[in-house]
Write a structure and sequence with these properties.
This protein is an alpha+beta fold and 193 residues long. It has helices at residues 2-34, 74-81, 106-112, and strands spanning 130-135, 143-148, 151-156, 160-161, 165-170, 174-179, 184-189.
């Protein structure tokens, strides 16, 4: 019974020593935050807290609070309000990066540019038909399947499709079509699917 009481007293003393030795640094910090200190100007660095670490104890995080004083610092708020964001010109709300445009020297451009005539005419619009197969019956001419969007057309050489496109020549791997409105000729290859 006496040995159990002696061990209990020893355990209480050891626990008390651990609590009071680690509590010394926090009590020092607490008393320093209670004492009023003159407010540093925004240019002065904020005071930092020094923490002593016992050998063998766990390391504390590297970041240390600048001040434990909970009062509102109006001078720091004023300094942050006057701060203006100066980015690098990139819009942070767009995922793609904007490609910078090269600015040409107007003096060099005037010297190098010769007077030109009217701009060349725009190229004719492409023929957006798809060639996807043949329709052959014995004794008839060779016919092909053409599609434009959801419309499907069956045509032979010389036929006009969709009141605009004339089938000129059918070969095993492509078909030559002419747009009769713009006299544009285009060879359309055979597509799978």
């Amino acid at each position: 019974m006496i040995a159990a009481i002696a061990l209990m007293v020893l355990a209480v003393l050891l626990i008390g020593r651990m609590l009071f030795s680690s509590g010394e640094t926090s009590s020092v910090a607490a008393t320093s935050s209670v004492t009023p200190s003159p407010a540093p100007s925004p240019a002065d660095p904020a005071p930092t807290r020094v923490v002593h670490v016992r050998p063998g104890a766990q390391k504390k995080p590297a970041h240390v609070a600048r001040s434990l004083d909970p009062t509102l610092r109006y001078d720091w708020l004023k300094a942050s309000e006057d701060t203006e964001y100066q980015g690098k010109g990139r819009n942070i709300f767009r995922a793609e990066a904007e490609i910078p445009q090269i600015i040409k020297n107007p003096v060099l451009d005037k010297q190098n540019s010769a007077p030109t005539g009217p701009p060349p005419p725009a190229p004719p619009p492409p023929i957006n038909m798809k060639f996807f197969g043949f329709a052959n019956k014995p004794g008839e001419s060779k016919k092909i399947f053409l599609s434009q969007g959801e419309d499907v057309f069956i045509a032979a050489e010389g036929d006009i499709v969709d009141r605009r496109y004339k089938v000129l020549r059918i070969s095993p791997m492509s078909v030559e079509i002419e747009d009769v409105l713009s006299n544009n000729r285009q060879s359309i290859p055979l597509t799978q699917g």
